[in-house]
Write a structure and sequence with these properties.
- The protein has three domains: about 250 residues, HUPs (Rossmann fold, 3-Layer(aba) Sandwich), CATH 3.40.50.620; about 130 residues, Orthogonal Bundle (Isoleucyl-tRNA Synthetase, Domain 1); about 45 residues, no CATH class.
- The chain is built from 16 helices and 16 strands.
- Strands 5, 6, 7, 8 and 9 form a five-stranded mixed sheet that branches.
- Helix 1 crosses helix 14 and helix 4 packs across helix 7.
């Protein structure tokens, strides 16, 4: 079998948002990567913009594993924040009853997209005691204080390194004097202020949803939740933290401040962020009618693997413009790959002799694919290596220079590539019914006799039975639609 697939000696380079440059990846542990990824807020079905980020994180996870690392990934489920509380109160439901269908939908969606499961999916509501302890320590160390509204806030002035991830200059963003506290979970960069760690209970706003704490009734702030769960499950320092680019500020900036104030240690070594997904060059929004969940695309006839390929094929730090023409392109690309796999399966015989030309093509493709992934997940170059390999093998097959052993090695390499891509199908098709095979042979005979009327009639009957006719160097074959 072909050698040299993933070269362990290749260093991995990732673009670190904090440093604004690519850096050689060196985890704390020699072989174990601790990774935290911001998961969904379960107040609605996740949209394709969310899944662009989750698929990027899956590509990162798979790439690390491809190069021999073990990965301990934690992805949180935000089931308590402004949005989930508002939704539960509106429907007069408990928080658990309101969020449960969206949690279930999320797990169904990531399975449909072929996203590998993380090692932990902590729900915020399961870690309230740890969050309370986290806040108490920040109070004890002088980083947090209780305000007149009885909420607990983090004082960013007590943390001089605040702003180093987003590269914001606080002195330029402070607007006027007076109260600069922000109690909302989400806000823009113009509102650099002390952020809430514990949100005091308001019966009008919060209804029946609150927890008891030494600070009074209330619930944790959204930013605090991730720090407490990351600390509980991964420890005080982690290797990689991921999310969408709009998480950089304030969410991830606040995570750094409260985590490092808590532990007096560096929180994250490498910050990786994916760019936005837009639709037809416009921001996705319900008001514009261009808002899509995964279910919307499945209902339009696309498969999970087609959606995955569409979300995957553009570099994660490049804005992805979603169009339905692009979805058709993803479908076409996957069809080409899966057709190539079928052709190789038809002739492949393990341990059979192989040709030197095919071996050289494989030895060109393997390092190109691996080196592209090692260069900050350069997926477009990795896919180009795959398509170049397919082109060379198809040419050899057309010249009848491809051996059974060559086909077997090609399948092995594509299976290894698919450990990262996660889109290809290696399931062998059941042979078409005998009567359809006989009709294909009758059609070929009718064409030789120039009986075009009969040939067309047989063609329509074959198509109506759910099969396509494909010309190959070995003659025509039937392929399921």
């Amino acid at each position: 079998m072909v050698e040299g697939l993933a070269v362990p000696s290749i260093p991995l380079y990732f673009y670190n948002t904090e440093k604004r440059e690519k850096e050689v990846f060196r985890p704390h542990s020699h072989n174990l990567v601790k990774m935290y990824t911001c998961g969904p807020t379960v107040y609605h079905y996740a949209h394709i913009g969310n899944f662009r980020t989750y698929v990027f994180e899956d590509l990162l996870r798979r790439t690390l594993r491809f190069f021999g690392y073990q990965v301990h990934q934690v992805m949180n489920l935000t089931d308590v924040d402004d949005k989930t509380i508002k939704g539960a109160i509106h429907l007069e439901q408990s928080l658990e009853d309101y969020t449960k269908p969206y949690k279930n939908a999320f797990f169904c969606d990531i399975k449909t997209l072929g996203i590998e499961p993380a090692e932990n999916y902590p729900a915020a509501t399961d870690y309230i005691p740890q969050m309370i302890d986290f806040i108490q320590k920040l109070i004890d160390k002088g980083y947090a204080y209780k305000s007149k509204d009885h909420s607990i806030y983090f004082s960013i002035e007590k943390f001089p390194r605040y702003g180093r991830l987003s590269h914001l200059k606080l002195e330029e963003l402070k607007v006027g004097a007076g109260d600069r506290r922000i109690a909302e979970d989400e806000y823009d960069k113009e509102n650099v202020s002390d952020f809430v760690l514990w949100k005091a209970y308001d019966p009008t706003r919060d209804g029946h949803i609150f927890w008891e704490s030494p600070f009074g009734k209330g619930r944790p702030g959204w930013h605090l939740e991730c720090s407490a769960m990351a600390h509980s499950l991964l420890g005080e320092s982690i290797d990689i933290h991921c999310g969408a680019v709009d998480n950089v500020f304030p969410h991830h900036e606040n995570e750094i401040a409260q985590s490092e104030a808590f532990s007096d240690k560096g929180f994250v070594r490498y910050w990786l962020h994916s760019e936005h997904l837009i639709v037809n060059h416009k921001k996705m929004s319900k008001s514009l009618g261009n808002f899509y969940t995964l279910r919307d695309l499945l209902n339009k006839g696309f498969s999970g693997t087609e959606v995955r390929y569409m979300l995957l094929h553009t570099h994660y730090r490049t804005q992805l413009n979603f169009t339905f023409e692009g979805m058709e392109g993803a479908r076409s690309s996957l069809q080409r790959i899966n057709d190539f796999i079928r052709r190789m399966q038809e002739i492949a015989t393990p341990d059979a002799p192989h040709s030197e030309q095919a071996r050289e093509a494989l030895q060109r493709a393997i390092p190109k694919f691996s080196q592209a992934l090692a260069d900050d997940l350069n997926i477009s170059v990795a896919l180009a290596a795959l398509f170049d390999l397919m082109h060379e093998f198809n040419s050899l097959q057309d010249q009848q220079a491809l051996t059974e052993g060559d086909a077997a090695e090609a399948l092995y390499v594509l299976q290894q590539f698919n450990r990262v891509i996660g889109c290809f199908s290696f399931e062998t098709e059941e042979p078409p019914p005998l009567y359809l095979q006989e009709m294909l042979e009758q059609r070929e005979e009718a064409r030789k006799q120039k009986n075009w009327e009969l040939a067309d009639q047989l063609r329509h009957e074959i198509l109506a039975s759910g099969y396509l006719m494909e010309d190959t160097p070995h003659g025509p074959r039937l392929k399921k639609k």
